[in-house]
Design brief:
With about 325 residues, the chain is of the alpha/beta class. Helices cover about 45% and strands about 20% of the residues. The strands form five sheets. It has a six-stranded parallel sheet, with helices on both faces. The protein has a three-stranded antiparallel sheet with strand order 7-10-11. The protein has a three-stranded antiparallel sheet with strand order 12-15-16. Helix 3 packs parallel to helix 4 and helix 5 packs across helix 7. About 45% of the residues are buried.
C-alpha cells in the first residue's frame, strides 16, 4: 500500500496516546489521523473529543480504526502498554509490555511495511529493540522517543538555573530513558559558550554540586510527577510532536532518540539514546559526541543494564 505522507496512526489511547494525538492535531502536520486502541469505544471517544475543536484548528480527519487503517500511515506512534505505577521503575514494566508488543507489532507490520515506527511506550529502549525485531523493519525506521523528553527537562532546568531561554541551551541526556541515564555535561554549552564559563558569567560557581542536583532532578522528574498527578503525558506528547515534525518535514534535526547501537563506545546490539539525525527516512545517522572517560563508563554501564534486562525477555 502506498504511504500517505500526511497520515499518522496512534496506537494506544491512554493518557500519553490521547495527549500525543491532541498535540499532533494542533501541529497541523497531518491531514489524517487514525486512533487505535484495544478499547475501541475509548478511541472513538478521543477522536470525537479532539475533532470537536477542529473549527479552531487546521483541517484533519480524525477517527478510530484498526490496524488495517494504519496500513498507509507515514508514521505509526506506539504508546500502548501498561502505565508506570507509583513506586514502580520503568524496568518493572518490561515483561508486561514486551508481552503486549508481541501482539501489537506483528499486526502493524502485517498492514504497514513502509512507514516509520515511533515507539513511545515504556521502558522505551527495551520496547524499541523488541519492535525492531518483531516488525522486521530496517532499523532506521524503528526508533524510540528515548531521551528527547529527558533532554528537554535538562534544558528547562538549566534555563531556570541560569535565568535564560532554555532554547539557547545545548545539552543532552544519553543512554537509557530511566534510572541509568547520563547527562552529557562534557559537550554541554549555551550558544557555543562552555557551560561552566556561562554559569560563572551568571554568578554560579559550585559546578559539581549544581550539575549533580540538576541531573538528579531530571532523572526523578517522572517519579515526582507520577507521585503528584498519577501520570506524565503533556511533556512526552510535545516530544512526540517534535519528533514527528523532524520526520514529516525531513528536517535532519539532531535529537537523542533511542535506536539500536552498533559499536560506538563499545556498545552493540542494544537500543539506547544517542544524538542522531532524524528525517524522512527515520534515523539517518549517528552524531559523534564528546564524552569524558567517566561519561563513557556510565554509558557502557547503562547499556549493560539494558542488555541484562533484554536477555530475560526476548
Amino acid at each position: 500500500m502506498a504511504l500517505n505522507e500526511r497520515k499518522v496512526a496512534v496506537v494506544g489511547c491512554g493518557f500519553v496516546g490521547s495527549a500525543s494525538a491532541f498535540a499532533l492535531m494542533e501541529s497541523g502536520l497531518f491531514s489524517e489521523m487514525v486512533l487505535i486502541d484495544v478499547n475501541k469505544e475509548k478511541a472513538e471517544g478521543e477522536a470525537l473529543d479532539i475533532s470537536h475543536g477542529l473549527p479552531f484548528a487546521k483541517p484533519v480527519q480524525i477517527y478510530a480504526g484498526d490496524y488495517r487503517d494504519a496500513g498507509d500511515a507515514a508514521v505509526v506512534v506506539v504508546t500502548a502498554g501498561a502505565g508506570q505505577k507509583p513506586g514502580e521503575t520503568r524496568l518493572d514494566l518490561v515483561k508486561k509490555n514486551v508481552g503486549i508488543f508481541k501482539s501489537i507489532i506483528p499486526e502493524i507490520a502485517k498492514y504497514n511495511t513502509e512507514g516509520i515506527l515511533l515507539i513511545v511506550a515504556n521502558p522505551v529502549d527495551i520496547l524499541t529493540y523488541a519492535a525492531a525485531k518483531l516488525s522486521g523493519f530496517p532499523e532506521n525506521r524503528v526508533f524510540g522517543s528515548g531521551t528527547v523528553l529527558d533532554t528537554a527537562r535538562l534544558k528547562y532546568l538549566l534555563g531556570e538555573h541560569l535565568k535564560i531561554d532554555s532554547r539557547s541551551v545545548h545539552a543532552c541526556i544519553i543512554g537509557e530513558h530511566g534510572d541509568s541515564e547520563i547527562a552529557a555535561w562534557s559537550s554541554a554549552n549555551v550558544s557555543g559558550i562552555p557551560l561552566n564559563d556561562f554559569c560563572e558569567m551568571r554568578g554560579h560557581f559550585e559546578h559539581e554540586k549544581s550539575m549533580k542536583e540538576i541531573a538528579e532532578n531530571v532523572k526523578n522528574s517522572a517519579y515526582k510527577i507520577i507521585e503528584k498527578k498519577g501520570a506524565t503525558y503533556y511533556g512526552i506528547a510535545m516530544s512526540v510532536r517534535r519528533i514527528c515534525e523532524a520526520i514529516v518535514r525531513d528536517e535532519k534535526s539532531i535529537l537523542p532518540v533511542s535506536s539500536i547501537q552498533h559499536g560506538e563506545f563499545g556498545i552493540d546490539d542494544v537500543a539506547l539514546s544517542m544524538p542522531a539525525i532524524v528525517g524522512r527516512s527515520g534515523v539517518e545517522g549517528a552524531v559523534p559526541i564528546r564524552l569524558s572517560d567517566e561519561e563513557k563508563k556510565a554509558l557502557k554501564a547503562s547499556a549493560d543494564t539494558l542488555k541484562e534486562v533484554l536477555s530475560g525477555v526476548l
